[in-house]
């Protein structure tokens, strides 16, 4: 539990860090995203979906909603989630 406490303290330690819980289209809690705002960039540190929700469609929904909250910022994936974010970016270009 110490790692969870450390992580929560890191987010609480600055106004430019936020954790959002995400609900799917059925209004079920299905994900979590931890972000850090830096100028006009929004860096995703944590991006987690529940096992039954893990697919690109749900990642895209979550990222679309996050972009709607921060329309003037560029979303950048961290090392662990850069591929998901790249696929999301590509889906926006083909919409």
Structure characterization notes:
By secondary structure, this protein is α+β, with helices and mostly antiparallel strands. It is 39% helix and 32% strand. Helix 2 packs across helix 3. The termini are far apart. The model has no long low-confidence stretch (mean pLDDT 94).
Task: Summarize the structure in short.
By secondary structure, the chain is α+β, with helices and mostly antiparallel strands. The protein has helices at residues 2-12, 56-69, 82-93, and strands at 17-23, 29-38, 41-49, 74-77.
Mind sketching the topology for me?
Elements: H1 2-12, E1 17-23, E2 29-38, E3 41-49, H2 56-69, E4 74-77, H3 82-93
Parallel strand pairs: 3-4
Antiparallel strand pairs: 1-2, 2-3
Helix pairs in contact: 2-3
Which key phrases capture this entry?
single chain; about 100 residues; alpha+beta; globular
Number of strands: 4
SSE class: alpha+beta
User: How many strands, which pairing sense, and closed or not: the largest β-sheet?
Assistant: 4 strands, mixed
Output the number of helix runs: 3
**Shape summary:** globular
What's the N-to-C terminus distance? 42 Å
